[in-house]
Amino acid sequence: MKKLIQMTINDRAYEVAVEPNKTLADLIRYDLGLTGTKKGCDTGDCGACTVILNGDPVNSCLVLAVQADNAVIETIEGLSTDDGLHPLQQAFVEKGAIQCGFCTPGMILSAKNLLDKNPAPTEAEIREGISGNLCRCTGYQKIFEAIESTRS
Amino acid sequence: MLLPKFEFHEPESIEKALALKKQLNSGARFLAGGTDLLVYLKKKIVSTDHVISLQRIDGLGEIQENESNLFIGACTTMAAISRHPAVLKRFCALKSGADNMGTHLIRNRATIGGNVCNASPAGDTLPALLVYDAVALVESPDGKREIPLTDFFKGPGKTDLKNDDILTGFRLPYPPDHSGAHYIQLGKRKSAEINVVNAASFLTCEPGTSNILSARIALGSVAPTPIRAPEAEAALMGRTAGDDTFNAAAETARFKDCSPIDDFRGSAAYRRAMVGVLTKRTLAEAFDQARA
Ligand SMILES: Cc1cc2nc3c(=O)[nH]c(=O)nc-3n(C[C@H](O)[C@H](O)[C@H](O)COP(=O)(O)OP(=O)(O)OC[C@H]3O[C@@H](n4cnc5c(N)ncnc54)[C@H](O)[C@@H]3O)c2cc1C
Ligand code: FES
Ligand code: FES
């Protein structure tokens, strides 16, 4: 039976009826059309589906949409403003931290969460902060440099 | 990967959750953080018609500092355990287990009750819970009961819980003064890795001396369940802490207490050797804390 849930995504209120067996990742991508959230493995290993759920980054492929009833969610689409890209997004572009781009939304959300909670992370903390996000292309170094360039 | 169809229930109390489970019988499964259950459902390792979420039950996600022990609710996440002041101050080996589980994304969802119910021989919080003498608190339609964690694990993925039981939390007695504990996990990489061997040790020393008053060692990934190492513990009791004593205990753990197997993560012989190394290292670190 479908269940009616409410959530706020990127400051916009949503009310949707969902099947209990739909994951938050599938709801965000296929029902709400926010395709910046990627699906790589669907089993919690790759981090491509990272979203920030009530202030904490999680694998949205391992959260049921019904579990996110009344939640406040941030996806990659919520980061840029009328003034342009978020500083982290800009740094990823400038430092060449994006190749195919599949891991990028998750990487940036993990990095944003890290910097929001710890504005001056050490090298080890940056690497730990993105250790739940796999990248097949860059070898991580450029991603690391992009995040490092935005820390205070 | 599609999840099979199921009905979703979100009871607000333990009583309601127990009643639902009884009514739906074996067709229902409890859901905590979902990092095991949703993966198993997607991979069709388990199936269910009803999922009963424990997430909205008050108190199950809390940590309480009681007079002589710490209560950790079953639905407390690894992230919450890792930053709780009482865990940091008195249960550093548990903090280390919680910090080493999966990735930071997984740790924001995964619960300690789920880790224990999943009963993997390699589970990252289990050795620390064992050496801290944790007691599992269980509720069923017939009432409440307590299971010492040493009696909880029955095999890979198998526990002492009955179909109608809810694990509500754990009670960990505060370690006495002059105690120390340490946990080490050995894997092929640092993040999101299933352990090859993991071990925790706990020591209490007589004040002002190096005499060992009590010792507990727990080993993971080297038997069908996480285990205590009684022979190695006996080799420490009443002895003077130090390299010779720790080496002797490590050899005992290596050859008498564990029964590892060969698999693609490591050979039985390598695991045995690492039981020795990790036992020695965790004891030495526990001792440093105990005399600090
Ligand atoms: C990418 C990834 C990496 C991982 N890495 C690690 C790791 O490094 N170390 C490690 O130990 N584990 C790891 N895990 C496994 C998993 O995250 C942990 O076992 C976690 O603690 C499970 O908790 P949960 O709350 O998500 O459990 P759930 O999936 O919600 O539940 C697990 C099982 O326990 C039952 N259950 C849960 N809570 C209760 C309760 N209170 N009462 C009765 N039954 C209950 C459920 O019915 C279910 O059968 C990993 C998983 C993933 C996906
Ligand atoms: S798609 Fe969710 S972690 Fe890979
Ligand atoms: S840029 Fe291709 S996966 Fe990271």
From TrEMBL, chain A:
Residues covered by the 2Fe-2S ferredoxin-type domain: 3-79
**Which keywords appear in this protein's UniProt record, sorted alphabetically?**
2Fe-2S, Iron, Iron-sulfur, Metal-binding, Oxidoreductase
Domain of life of the organism in this record?
A: Bacteria
- A Pfam family cross-referenced in the UniProt record is Fer2_2
InterPro entries tied to this protein: 2Fe-2S-bd (IPR002888), 2Fe-2S-bd_dom_sf (IPR036884), 2Fe-2S_ferredoxin-like_sf (IPR036010), 2Fe-2S_ferredoxin-type (IPR001041), 2Fe2S_fd_BS (IPR006058), Beta-grasp_dom_sf (IPR012675), Diverse_Oxidoreductases (IPR051452)
Q: Report the GO molecular function annotations.
A: 2 iron, 2 sulfur cluster binding; metal ion binding; oxidoreductase activity
Documented EC number(s): 1.2.99.2
The protein's enzyme class: oxidoreductase
Segment forming the signal sequence: none
Q: Give the protein name, as stated in the record.
A: Carbon-monoxide dehydrogenase small subunit CoxS
